[in-house]
Amino acid sequence: MFNYILKRLFYGFLVLLGVVTVVFLLFNVLPGDPARMMLGQRADSASVAAINHDLGRDKSLGVQYLNYLNDLSPISIHNSENENSFWYLNSNKYTSYVSILSFGNKMIVFKPPYLRRSYQNSRPVTEILFEAFPKTALLAIVAITIALVIGLVVGVFSALYKDTWFDKLAMVLSVMGMSLPSFFAAILFAWLFAFVLAPYTGLSMFGSLYTVDDFGRGEYINLKNLILPAVVLGIRPLAIVVELTRSSLLDVLSQDYIRTAKAKGLNKKSVLMKHAMRNALNPVVTAISGWLASLMAGAVFVEYVFDWKGVGVAIVDALNKYDFPVVMGAVMFISVILVLINILVDILYAYLDPRIRLY
């Protein structure tokens, strides 16, 4: 089991290294001058040169790449004395670190990953992402909860009443839910429930988790703004859960041990809850674990349409302003979440099924 975990961690590291390389090369070949973005178009050449030196853009692409890896790595090497060195341990950049080893003017330190600073407001990218991520996480968790609860109920009834009007309607709606793009569903739901039916629903087309009080008493949490984006984001996983629950439960109900349980005189509810559902939920758990990671990463369109100020809105705003460090940091942040969740799911599979450890 230990070797299996090490292997999965190594594969995850290789994936992240590939993502870092692609992201760095992609955003360093795009047009645009960060110094001009930070100083304005009327900045003098000396100021522009100073900013480019501080960002390391006067170095070769290979040196910039190594420095980017050094910044992202929790264990990094720096120059502790020469302030003009490209590898200088600048306390303004690396606000917290622990020295591990020193040799000469070099120092190996343990620190949080440094994702650079925004070109637009010079705020640390980590601060921007940590401010936006809890809202995206809340949206994703509520969406997957809606999908799981409703999907399980509908899927169970579809399996129990196979080929009835309810089953056929559920299958039609689930196919429509899987094929409906998130951005179109967001626009459609916003128009229908927050514009056409606004007098009856009381919902707003736009709004984040925090709303500014009209009487100047500061911000307050407005959970009503969570309803529409969470429902829209949960449509596709809801359709998947319905399909998986129905097909898995139908397969389990046809097994011999279910017929044996019925023959022993157990009532229908006991057979369903104590025997069938426990085995039928395995593929559903698999799908939900993957969808939770995907929802945290893929809420960009939904957040932008509803102006839910999470990571998705931060990414779109950064792209509009060519604020590359924010976009690069967000991509890396999302990649780490996806890789970690996949590693945890792989470990859980290996714990539940020892046969998987052989691969």
- Give unreliable regions as ranges: none
Q: What integer value in Å does the Rg equal?
A: 26 Å
What's the CATH topology label of the domain at 125-358? MetI-like fold
Number of helices: 15
Give the strand order of the largest sheet, numbering strands 1, 2, ... along the chain: 1-3-2
The secondary-structure element order is HHHHEEEHHHHEEHHHHHHH
CATH superfamily of the domain at 125-358: MetI-like
Write down how many β-strands occur, each being a DSSP E stretch of 2 or more residues. Answer: 5
Instruction: Give the distance, in angstroms, between the N- and C-terminal Cα atoms.
Output: 11 Å
What's the CATH C level of the domain at 125-358?
Mainly Alpha
The average pLDDT score comes to 79
Task: Give the fraction of residues assigned to helices.
Answer: 55-70%
Give the oligomer, counting copies of the same chain as homo and different chains as hetero.
Answer: single chain
Main pleated sheet: 3 strands, antiparallel
State the CATH architecture of the domain at 125-358.
Orthogonal Bundle
